[in-house]
Design a protein that fits this description.
By secondary structure, the chain is α/β, with parallel strands linked by helices. It is about 35% helix and about 25% strand. The protein has a single domain, classed as Rossmann fold (3-Layer(aba) Sandwich), CATH 3.40.50.1010. Helix 4 packs parallel to helix 5. The radius of gyration is 16 Å and the shape is globular.
């Protein structure tokens, strides 16, 4: 049975999933808005996400990286309960995410370089910042997959062209995503 490592950029998956949920509900960008609407009711079931992405392969390691939430937030406990090692970093003084992509590249490179044999690297993000990690994995004989919402990458873009396979999350999102309350009201 093939083995895999799963690395998740939480904000990328969460934000783009919320955008898809809003779009499916018919909520569109209003004149003057700079960003597509994001459904605040959309949530991820991390255990189901892990199962979907693993596709029956044995998981060597699953890591979810994101920004530190408020102390009352239970999201990271749900991710841990779902099978992820969770790593968080504080946002900067402007409230912007910092060190998340770098952490994923560092952890992914460590895992690729220390695993005794090549496996499948499954990266959940469409961000081009991960191309160095993908190149290292490929150079060491690994298969590479980019799992991302279609709004998070360009099909002909550099990241999509670098990985061995692109796996859009859009068609499988109903199997791991849900809406926790009615929106829009």
């Amino acid at each position: 049975m093939p083995e895999c490592i799963i690395l998740v950029d939480n904000s990328n998956v969460f934000i783009e999933g919320g955008k898809l949920s809003a779009k499916l509900k018919g909520v569109v960008r209003q004149p003057g808005d700079k960003h597509d609407p994001c459904d605040p009711s959309w949530r991820i079931d991390f255990g189901l996400l892990l199962r979907e992405v693993a596709e029956g392969q044995r998981i060597i390691k699953a890591i979810l990286v994101g920004s530190t939430p408020p102390k009352s937030d239970t999201i990271w406990n749900a991710a841990r309960d779902g099978g992820f090692e969770v790593i968080t970093h504080e946002k900067n003084l402007s409230g912007r995410e910092k060190a998340v992509d770098t952490e994923i590249v560092a952890k992914g490179t460590e895992l690729v370089c220390t695993n005794p044999q090549p496996a499948v690297l499954k990266l959940l993000s469409g961000d081009r910042d991960f191309i160095p990690l993908i190149n290292i994995a490929i150079s060491r004989g690994w298969e590479t997959e980019m799992w991302a919402f279609e709004s998070a990458f360009r099909k002909g873009g550099q990241m999509a062209q670098t990985v061995n396979r692109v796996k859009p999350l859009d068609p499988i999102s109903p199997r791991f995503g849900r809406n926790d309350f009615a929106w829009p009201i």
